[in-house]
Amino acid sequence: MLRNYLAIDLRGIKNEYYEYAVGFGDVPGDFKGLMIAPEHLKNRKDIISKADPDVVFAQGKDLATNRKIIESIDIDVLSRPFPIDDTIAKMAQRNEKYFEICARDIIASRGYVRSKIIQSLSKTIELAVKRNIGIVLTSGASDMLETVTPRELVAFGTVLGLTYPQAKGAISSVPQSLLERRGLL
Amino acid sequence: MPKSMREKRRYIKFVVDSDKRFDDEDVRHSLWGAMLSFIGENGAARTNLWLSNWDEKSNTGVLRCSIIAVDEVIVCMKLVTEIQEERVNFIVKGVSGTLKSLETC
């Protein structure tokens, strides 16, 4: 018997495991998300006004880009939140930004790259927990064979350094608070 | 060994989502491959992993592992994306301390 989890997969296709999902592009989902790549960060205002998304994500790149994303009022979530330092973490706390930890980043990479991603994400999580920044665990699924169940996302969170309650919060209460803040729930 | 000194175990019920049917050897081999590359030989030894049941018709199985390594085992399962060049998705149906309670998952 599959349980119906009150969990929000903020990034991935809508599936039987989640009550809410944010879809990108043509992927159907409860809410519309927009991911801004680092090279399009300059034109973000035009892109956001054209797409009219419910939640705006921006992909991190380097320290300067991540800082720009955290300072921007249009962006809700910093995706791939590495590298970050304590100054960026402090600003993220002040501006009430969220960090997105995507399981796809780990699954799709191999060897040296995967170990560096895990190292960077663990450091980010350590800083985010210290500064009380909301962490959102997402699947990043683009088809049914990439979906991740809530229990599996919690396992990813605990392996990266979150405690079990924190990891559970990262798939339920934290994304819910983000959607509530945007007036979507 | 007295019961109090025995290692606590957890059972993980899972389904391999794919059109193709796999035998237990394929699943075991791919799981151990992912585990050795992710947590290494030392980490894999601590998991006490054992594929206790495997139903080829429904691609469903039960893994037995140490209580301290449940999350690592689940992550390793998700890292298996291909078996015999066929795309697969390991879906965890439930985690439990007894086989009986897994029947309802």
Strands, helices and their partners?
The complex is a heterodimer of chains A (185) and B (105).
Chain A: E1 8-9, E2 20-23, E3 31-36, H1 44-51, E4 55-59, H2 63-71, E5 77-79, H3 86-94, E6 98-102, H4 103-108, H5 111-131, E7 134-138, H6 150-160, H7 164-169, H8 173-181
Parallel strand pairs in A: 1-2, 2-3, 3-4, 4-5, 5-6, 6-7
Chain B: E1 9-17, H1 24-38, H2 40-47, E2 50-55, E3 60-66, H3 70-79, E4 82-83, E5 86-87, E6 89-96, H4 99-102
Antiparallel strand pairs in B: 1-3, 1-6, 2-3, 4-5
Which CATH architecture of chain B? 2-Layer Sandwich
Structural class of the helices, strands and pairings of chain B? alpha+beta
CATH class of chain A: Alpha Beta
* Biggest sheet: strand arrangement of chain A: 1-2-3-4-5-6-7
Radius of gyration of chain B: 14 Å
CATH superfamily of chain B: Ribonuclease P, Pop5 subunit
What's the β-strand tally of chain B? Answer: 6
Q: Treating each run of at least 4 consecutive H or I residues as one helix, how many helices of chain A?
A: 8
Strand order of the largest sheet of chain B: 2-3-1-6
Strand content of chain B: 25-35%
